[in-house]
Amino acid sequence: MKGEILLPMEIINVYCDESCHLPKDHIDTMVIGAISCPLQQVKLVNKEIRNIKTKHGLNPFSEIKWTKISRNKISLYKELIDLFFSVDYLNFRAVVVKGKKYLDHSKYNQDYDDWYYKMYFYLLREIVRLGGHYAIYLDKKDTQGVKKVSLLRDILNRSLLDFAGETVRKIQIVESHEIELLQLTDLFIGAISYFNRELNTSIAKVEITNYLISVSKTSLNYSTPRKAEKFNIFVWTPRRD
Q1: Bridge-partner residues for 93, per DSSP?
Q2: How far apart are CA 20 and CA 97, in angstroms?
Q3: 23: pLDDT confidence band, cut at 50, 70 and 90?
Q4: Domain span at residue 128?
Q5: A Pfam family for this UniProt protein (predicted)?
Q6: d(C-alpha 16, C-alpha 152), whole Å
Q7: What does DSSP say about strands 231-236 and 91-98: parallel, antiparallel, or unpaired?
Q8: Does 51 fall in a domain?
Q9: Contact by Cβ (8 Å): 96, 221
Q10: What letter would DSSP give residue 66?
């Protein structure tokens, strides 16, 4: 992902979301993910997603969420997955955290929020690259994240030796119900989380998860090759020494 240099002034929007990210949710797996899309294609993709919603009897501005999946809408979610894989300008990356119960923040002089944004750094460092310009949108986690995301922007730019801050132009906290591509991210990370938690509570969710595995040609619970650009997964586990 790092090797190719983008054409000057090309702007990429990156839409990020997370699943099971709360520190005391008693869930041992966390997934954060992002879909990237060139700014010039964003309106087209959002329109296509709204058209799919309408086709399947939904209000075009209703929110698509993993938690809303039902048997009578399986074809809707499969069509959304097909849309993503039918175009070459949409890419997805996820970080799957396994073993939240083993986190030891005191050992690394950090708190949970510090660690949480480190995971975002691991997610985004393989998406942003020198020569491109990025606008990153994070689904709203809480009301305390503004300073943290500003620091994350600075760290990402410095990691690229871009001290002028021209690569990552902004990181903004947004509401997912307002952005279709963020809802598509929610669908993907929901399936990845469901599979890694080995859940089997919904026939519809199992079918959608298996469909994503089939179309993406990935297992969802192992890291893909780092060079995999269309659908990339990185599995992270805390040290236990």
Answers
A1: 34, 232
A2: 10
A3: low
A4: 11-236
A5: DUF3800
A6: 13
A7: parallel
A8: yes
A9: yes
A10: G
Structure confidence by residue, pLDDT tens digits, 201-221: 999 999 999 999 999 999 999
Structure tokens at 98: 């396994």
Quote the number of domains for the chain: 1
**Residue 208: what pLDDT?**
98
Non-local (6+) Cβ contacts of 210 within 8 A are none
What pTM does this model have? Answer: 0.90
Are 106 and 114 in contact by the 8 Å Cβ rule? The answer is no
Three-state SS sequence of 106-175: HHHCCCHHHHHHHHHHHHHCCCCCECEEEEEEEECCCCCCHHHHHHHHHHHHHHCCCCCCCCEEEEEEEC
* Tokens 């298996």 belong to residue: 210
Task: Identify the CA nearest to 49 among candidates 89, 76, 27, 88.
Answer: 76
The CATH number for 124's domain is 3.30.420.10
Pair 153, 125: CB distance under 8 Å: no
Q: Is 233 helix (H, G, I), strand (E, B) or coil?
A: strand
- Token couple for 193: 């989380």
